[in-house]
Structure formats: C-alpha cells, structure tokens
Amino acid sequence: MELVWNNVKAVLEERLPGHSFRMWIEPVKFENRSGDAFRLSCPNAFSKKRVQDHYGSMIQDEIRTLLGSDISLCFDVRKGTNGASRGPVVKKGLKKVETQLVIPNVANPVMHSGRMLRPDFTLDDFVVSGNNDFAYSAALSLASSTQSHNSSLFLLSDTGMGKSHLTQAIGHHINRKKPGERVYYITAEDFTNEMIGSFKNDTAGQFKDKYRSQCDVLLLEDVHFLGGKERTQIELAMTLDYLMESGKKIMFSSCYLPNDIPKMNEQLASRFTSGLISPIEDPNFRTRVRILKKKAAQKGHRLPMDVIEYLAGELTDNIRQLESGLVSVSAKSSLMGVPLDLDLAESVVKNIATKKKRVTIDVIKKLVCREFNITPVDIVSKSRKKTIVKPRQVAIYLSRRYTDQPLQAIGKNFNRYHATVMHAVGTIEKDIRQEVQMRNQIEYLSRKIENGDF
Ligand SMILES: Nc1ncnc2c1ncn2[C@@H]1O[C@H](COP(=O)(O)OP(=O)(O)OP(=O)(O)O)[C@@H](O)[C@H]1O
C-alpha cells in the first residue's frame, strides 16, 4: 500500500504547484490500510487539518482510481514529530524564529542552518549535460573558489529543472570539502518569515547577526518570492552587502530573472545580478534518457529501454514530470501485477500529459466565466458586485491550485495585487470548509480541470 501512496504523491506532485506539494503533501506518510480505511499521517495537527481540508478529496480520488475501489481516508498526527515540519513552520514561523526546519520524510538528512539538505540531491546524482553544464561548472567553481569578491551565482530555470538539486548538491559538496564553512540553506520565504518573526519578538539583532556574521555560504532559493515584500528586500540587500563585502559565497535560484520579478527593487535586483547568472535549459531527449536511467537505477526500478525512450520522448515539460512518469509506471506495474511495458507506459503518460499540459490561468478564467455566466471582461474588472467577485475569487483559487504561477503572476492576470490573490485564496478555502455549495462547485470545476474538460 505504501506504493499506492507513493504513486498518489507522484501524481499530486505533477498537479500541484511545487511549493504546495513540498509544503503539504511531501511530509505526509502512509501508515496502514485496514478494511476500507486508508490511513495517512501528518507531522502535526495544523498540517493534518490543511491537508484534509484542502487536498483530501484529491487524494481520495487518486487512491480510488489506483485501487479501483472505494476507501475511507483517515488522517492522523504522527507521534514523536513534535511539530517540527515545514508546513506549519511557515504559518507559525513567527514564533519559531531560530528553530531548525526539518523535511520529515527524508532519510538521514544532514543538519544545517535553515533547511535540511536532501541526501539524494548530490553532485553524483546530478546528470550533467549540454543544458546545464555551464550552471554545473559555475556552481562548482563558486564552491571551490578562494576569491574574495564576485562570489555569487544566480541559477535561473523553469520549475522542475534542477535548481534545488544543484543548489543543495553544492551545499553537500562544501560541507564535505570544507567542513568548517557555515552553510545556510534557506528559501526566500524562510528568510521573510524569520525576519518578520524576529521583529515581532524583538530579536532582530540576533537575526541580522546570524545572516551577516555567522554565515559563510548562503544558498537562497526562490528569490522571486520576495516580489512586493519591500521590508524584506531592504533587509536582504543589506545582508548581501555584508556577505559580499566579506567575500562570502552566495547562490540564488529563481524561475525569473531579477529584473523580471514584479515589484523587486532595483538595489536588490542589482545585487542578485552582481555575479554570474546561469540558466538551466530544457534537457534534450538524450539527456532525458540519461536522467531516467540514473533515477531508475537509484530507485531499483528495472525499466526496458523502449519504455525509457518512450517516457523520455513524451514527458518533456520538466524533469519532475519525467520522474513522476518513472515512479508511476513502476508502481502501477507492481500494484496491478502487469508487465512494465509500452502499453502500461502509454496509459501513464496519457494520464500525466492530459492532467498537466493544458491548464493555464487563461483556461481557468474561461472555464469559470462560462460556468458562472460572466464575461472575460467582468472577471478582470474592478466590479465589486458579488456575482462577479465570487467567480473571480474562484478563478484565482483554481489558478493557484492548478498552475505553477506565483502570486504576482496570478494577480497580474486578474488585474490585482498579489495580496488580493492571497485574500481570494483564503476566502475560498474558508468557503469550502463552511459552505457545502461552494465545496461542490469547487469539486465540480476541479474535476473538469483534472479531466481536461474545458
Ligand atoms: N540534471 C539532473 N540530474 C538528475 N536529476 C535532476 C536533474 N535536474 C533535475 N533533476 C531532478 O528533477 C527534480 C526536480 O528538480 P528540482 O527540485 O531541483 O527543480 P527546481 O528547478 O528547483 O524546481 P522548482 O523551481 O519547482 O523548485 C528533482 O527530483 C531532481 O533530482
């Protein structure tokens, strides 16, 4: 049954925005199945509620599809995890300023300041090819550099292309080669939460000191998150000045070039670009084949070459999608006791490709307009009429749930600030919990999106 859960996770990873998956679904573990009860556990009560309310029906549907029978889904709070998971830390981070963040489902993680480095995100496990060899060399050269200036690197790529893998691999590499160096691995969201928390708790001095004087290598991910966060931008710019002036090493990652991040102040953007900027491009077919072979070998999956080549030919969106295909074919083959062949791979690919490819904010807008009988002009207008506001909030909520777009991009699409997007998402989440009608409407629309029926 654990395989079922792994397979469901692979599907959700494909379907949910990366940050939502990592924050909420990744820490969930399979516990047991007894009768029709399928039991999962979350690291604490907060994440249990969130996963149950927000993703429960999606998880249930996937398990039902895989098993071909109805189940009743139960969530528990895992014993002994003590709430130290990523999910709730983001919300409760205001109080937990100096705590270590833990990725709960990773075996033998290495302790660091900030987040844990995933043990499988190493240089050995990173396939170097034409699409990323410049980024790889630049990262390695930064890691080994003894230069006292210009020691920063900005990794740029679409989602799922290996930024986190390469960044964390550099963290491992430095830890192994230079154990004395203090490596901080965090996301821009962590930095923001920690800063806000420190101001609230009167520990701003400690916070500043920690990043300015106690860090030798700063690995800062997802810097596009900082768009619109003026106070954090100013603080980070000052921190970077301290680090750069004292020749510390800094790696940034983002899906956007600094100057393309909405509401990013010029001072910070110029610090991001003061060193090397290195894109990671789409991998070509041969590289996708190499990655699949490597991942299959690591996970102990035996895939025939024609299946590998078929997956590599079809799953071209990003490497995360490729991995999802690999996990799905292996899980389906062993669960259903069928050979791991091209027929099986075709059924898996059909599922992944239709679910992912065509869902864009535009598609969601059109679907919502049609279902609520409003016009595409209404949905982006300034109108405060309830008959317009609700569908707009629904469309924003669905865009957040089904696309990888950041808040700013969603806001732009609806002529709104990202704070309005957050408000809309929160409102609909609350409505789903409290109103049967809204729950049904969202389920209906979600099903349409998931089935490509729009
Ligand atoms: N060159 C590579 N070799 C092996 N695995 C890779 C490579 N590039 C990416 N992957 C794998 O693809 C998956 C997604 O990579 P990663 O999380 O690093 O993407 P990302 O660019 O940081 O995405 P996001 O912007 O959504 O955070 C990971 O499991 C990673 O191991």
Describe the structure.
Mean pLDDT is 85; it is low at 81-112. Strands 4-6-7-8-5-9 form a 6-stranded parallel beta sheet, sandwiched between helices. Strands 1-2-3 form a 3-stranded mixed beta sheet, with helices on one face. The two termini are 33 Å apart. It folds into 4 domains: 1-84, GMP Synthetase, Chain A, domain 3 (2-Layer Sandwich), CATH 3.30.300; 93-279, P-loop containing nucleotide triphosphate hydrolases (Rossmann fold, 3-Layer(aba) Sandwich), CATH 3.40.50.300; 283-357, Helicase, Ruva Protein, domain 3 (Orthogonal Bundle), CATH 1.10.8; 361-450, Orthogonal Bundle (Chromosomal Replication Initiator Protein Dnaa, Chain: A). It is an alpha/beta fold and 454 residues long. The protein is built from 20 helices and 9 strands. Helix 7 runs antiparallel to helix 8 and helix 15 packs antiparallel against helix 17. The chain has helices at residues 2-15, 18-25, 45-67, 86-92, 133-144, 163-177, 188-200, 204-213, 230-245, 266-272, 285-299, 305-314, 319-336, 342-356, 361-372, 376-380, 386-402, 407-413, 418-434, 436-450, and strands spanning 29-34, 37-42, 72-77, 113-114, 152-156, 183-187, 217-221, 249-254, 276-279. The structure holds adenosine-5'-triphosphate. Adenosine-5'-triphosphate (ATP) is lined by residues 18, 125-127, 132, 157, 159-165, 255, 291, 319-320, 323.
